[in-house]
Automatic annotation (TrEMBL):
Signal peptide from the UniProt entry: 1-17
Protein's UniProt keywords contain Signal: yes
Yeast cell wall synthesis Kre9/Knh1-like N-terminal domain location: 22-113
Top-level taxon of origin: Eukaryota
InterPro entries documented for this protein: GPI-anchor_Adhesion_Reg (IPR052479), Kre9/Knh1-like_N (IPR018466)
The keyword Transferase is annotated on this UniProt entry: no
Keywords: Signal
Origin organism lineage: Eukaryota, Fungi, Dikarya, Ascomycota, Pezizomycotina
Protein name: Ser-Thr-rich glycosyl-phosphatidyl-inositol-anchored membrane family-domain-containing protein
């Protein structure tokens, strides 16, 4: 037993990483409302994350981008829950790598989204797509092909 304690203490820094701590477990937010997402980081975390509204409790599963290219060092960012979000429990905020939803850096606790507040005009923000790393899209080229018949 004495030999296990230093081993377990030595592993503690390995399991620490980006951690979403707000919104909190079982909280409720109206569709269309703005919430603040808070997280903690360590020096090995990525410099930027994307925040997604995630629900894999209900069928069909869903994930919706809320913000992209958020500096991890900020440790806080305000996002709007989309107006057309189904009112139900099971939503989470996920911090992912860019637009690759298969690389999840952290997921927050599950919370409820309720109906949009009555009498309010709900408008979703427009999230611009990430900048392309490809060349110009208006490039034009002409290709000439010469064929020679073979006997």
């Amino acid at each position: 037993m004495r030999f296990l304690l230093p081993f377990v203490i030595g592993l503690t820094p390995i399991v620490s990483a980006l951690s979403i701590n707000k919104p909190g477990a079982n909280s409720t937010y109206a569709a269309g409302s703005t919430i603040t997402v808070n997280w903690t980081t360590v020096d090995t975390d990525p410099t930027e994350i994307s925040l997604y509204l995630w629900n894999f409790v209900s069928w069909p599963p869903s994930y919706v981008p809320l913000a992209q290219n958020v500096p991890t060092a900020d440790q806080s960012y305000s996002v709007q829950i989309p107006c057309d979000t189904n009112p139900e429990w099971g939503y989470q905020i996920s911090a992912i790598n860019g637009t690759n939803v298969y690389i999840i850096h952290a997921q927050g606790d599950r919370f409820t989204v309720s109906d949009a507040v009555n009498g309010t005009n709900c408008a979703d923000p427009i999230i611009p797509p990430p900048a392309s790393t490809c060349g110009p899209t208006n490039a034009v080229s002409t290709v000439y092909v010469t064929t020679t018949p073979t006997p």
